[in-house]
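Quick question: who can interpret this fold?

. . .
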Amino acid sequence: MAEWNMEYKDLPGKKIGVVQGKTYEQIKACYEYMDKISGVDMIAISFDYSYYTKSVPHPNKYVSWMLGRVKLLGDLLKDGIINENKPHHLLGCGLPQEFSFYSQYPWIYSLDTSNPVVHGIKGIEYGEDGLWSKESQKLFELINFEVEDTNKILYNISKFKMVLQMAKRKRYKVGEVVEFNFAGITEKGKIIGIQQESKYIVYDGRYTYPVYSDAILNVLK
């Protein structure tokens, strides 16, 4: 990497380094190299390290891949390895519901996958809980594929975006005092209950309000 940087130091653009390794120690060492020595601008983590099937063994390898990356990122963060000031990229996708786990990781900048498109082309719609298997086919192999129903592709893309929105949505706790928008007016009150995920009951000292997380503007205390 150092030799490449020296030879192509005048090459325009930014650099991304992909972490490699078969054990946690190897992955951690490679991450630290990418972060502290290589000079890359972004760090990428793959979706299918063989390490995942060892760290989270499961009969369904796609579940291992999904939860394995979730666990890996959590472990790297817990061990103080993750550089939260550097953007991170998630390479590929096994199961789309994986990305609902990353709401607390603002350092994840981007991801790339053809998962919703490939499955849509093959006529496979995302379920309410995502997918539990994966078509092992690259998008470029389907360029000349005759698509019977493009609605399945658009539906999957929409569902995938919903997963990402869920990951971005903040969670609030009972007892927190918040500012929120209600009928176009900014109100203030304490969260006294949670009706369902993303829907809260807020009391302002006089009235109770049903408030969705998207309407909460700020936590005061």
